[in-house]
Amino acid sequence: LSLVSGALVYDTDSNNIQIYNGTSWSALGSGGGGGGGGEANQNAFHQIAVTGQSAIIADSTMDTVIFQNGSGISLTSNATTDTLTFSATSDSSLGVVYAKHYGLDASKTDGTNVTAINNAIAALGDDGGTIFFPGGQFYLNASIDITRANATNSIRFVGSGHQNYGGDPTQNKSATPPVYGDVGGTVLRRDADDEFFNITNSRAIHFVGITFKGGAANGNGGNSGISGGNGAIYVLADAGCQGYLIENCVFHGIANCIHFKGLSDSIIRGCRFRNVPSNKGGGACIGLNENGSEVIDQIRIQDCVIDGSPDGSAINSAIDGISIYNTVSTVYVTNTSAIRLKRSFYTDSSWDGDFLYFQNSEAERADSDGFSLNGTGNFITIDNCFSCTNGSHGINILSNQNSSVNITNPNVRDNVGHGILIDTNTINNCSIVNPAIGGNSRNSSGTNHGIFIGTNVNNVYISGGKIGGNTAELSGTGTQGRGILINGSAHSNIRIIGTNVNGNQNADGIGASISSGNGNSIKFNAGSTVDIDT
Known about the structure:
With about 525 residues, this protein is mostly beta strands.
């Protein structure tokens, strides 16, 4: 039998139609039919399989696979380009949303980003949750207003890492050698003298890893920064409003940064305050105050650096570091530096709370006092703290303070005024134990003293330590007039025991002329001939 090219036969073994190309047989449509007699592309999957699940099998030659949006996944088809795009989306039911998915846009300078953040908050609903911010600088044209009236509690605002500013922002990775700029992190920026977040009565709001930037996008801040209004983060709290955390945030170019009114049981930890404007009126980087009858209790401020200089070198004469007013109680300030401010740590004359604890903290290069303690509040502890090179006194206990002030292991040196000034005749107890005090009365040798006890001041106890000598080593002869000067003749319960007051301008390191009062004991002090026991 002679076969011609194109002959067909049905092969019962392989169940397909075979075509003859003049020399051999092949399946119809396999491409071997010589010259394109069949479909050129016959390799195809007839099912879609997912491990551990049932396979999707084509039911006909023209069957359709349907892709559906899933939780956290959005699909977008484009018939023109024949593309299917997979995108991650927020699923608020998981308690986590991404601000980017609600329109956050680093290129916008209108209300886009405020709207995006508000929409992200609303998406979380009554149960609250976490809002993640990407890296980039996002402009806010108004404050974000959060209230419990809108059932807004338990919100965490989490950035992709804060940015310090101050480094060179130039970046050119292709250069030789590569240049890596000071970039990255989440930055929220405002130009107006106003708040960033204005919060009323909401519970448990957290801010983590975000930079709050005041002023021009590329400016260093400082006196080109903003006031922050009542505070970049401003909280008005009613009874039971607590549980805030502000952690690893940077406040750059903002005068009033954090202001709690009536808020209790909250933490500020690991934050940085930089380039603080001095031309935006008064205020404080951190302010604590009551909210009417709602007082503050249990605040922790830990591991923070508050540098008040507007430009990295000048001293700020307008803004305090941490300020405390009215009924504020049980505040712990630990491992915190406050430098180049008006006053590093300040209690106003209105303060009438209980229990302030300063531990392992630094007050340096203040325009006025390092520690300025006033008000009728009770029980202040200053433990292992450093208060040096300030424009006035290292520690100033002012006239209204009438409680108990306990100072242990203070390092108080190189201040323009007195090292420690006790100028209140109503104080119940002031104890200074194991001090290191020297080199005070800077620029006016002999005028001021290591410790000055004012007229009619009673109930002071000083023990141990060294009060005299130069700034660096407390050796030799320093600039202080005396190690301790007791002003006036009427005092009771002044006890100075076992202190070394060598190395002051006056040969006798203690100046005292007490002629009335009782309970006074001044004895065993190296560098002084004063011996009183009444």
